[in-house]
Design a protein that fits this description.
InterPro entries: Ptyr_pPase, Ptyr_pPase_sf. This protein has 150 residues and is α/β, with parallel strands linked by helices. The protein is built from 4 helices and 4 strands, in the order βαβαβαβα. The protein has a 4-stranded parallel sheet with strand order 2-1-3-4, with helices on both faces. It starts with 9 loop residues before the first strand and ends in a 9-residue tail after the last helix.
């Protein structure tokens, strides 16, 4: 089990529908910790792909177009050191599923950008805000350092 401040080897990100917040977090973590941390994402309910996620992730050079939303029940693996939940319902489900396992569960309250209204640019800004907050939080929690090559 990874304790606070230690880097886990396997992380699961979870949110409501595995369509926005958890796939963003998983893509960021995969990008920053390629071949160092096993990463998956899941939702409480089955969601549908969100084109705004692909748009804001592409802005920072990350391709999420292959992501297909999954539920906790769809996951065919276990053994995560750390489950990071990004929505209250996901946190409750993660705690319920890990009652008998030695796995750390952390709740990171994260706004749902799908509730944003206004112009396309205003909606994209809400998604960018979530992306950037997740990036900062992941770098801090998982002790990311830039590679010497830049």
């Amino acid at each position: 089990m990874a304790g606070p401040g230690t880097r886990p080897t396997a992380v699961l990100f979870a949110c409501g529908m595995n369509a926005v917040r958890s796939p963003m977090a998983a893509a960021i973590t995969r990008h920053l910790f390629a071949n160092r941390i096993y990463v998956r994402s899941a939702g409480v309910r089955q969601g549908e792909r969100d084109p705004f996620v692909d748009a804001v992730m592409a802005e920072i050079g990350m391709d999420t177009s292959a992501h297909q939303p999954k539920t906790f029940e769809d996951l065919d693996e276990s053994g995560f050191d750390l489950i990071i939940t990004l929505a209250p319902e996901a946190h409750h489900r993660a705690l319920e599923l890990t009652r008998t396992e030695a796995v750390e569960v952390e709740y990171w309250p994260t706004i749902d950008p799908t509730v944003a209204t206004g112009s396309r640019e205003q909606i994209l800004n809400a998604y960018r805000q979530v992306r950037d907050q997740l990036m900062a939080r992941i770098k801090k929690r998982l002790a990311w350092t830039p590679s010497p090559s830049g």
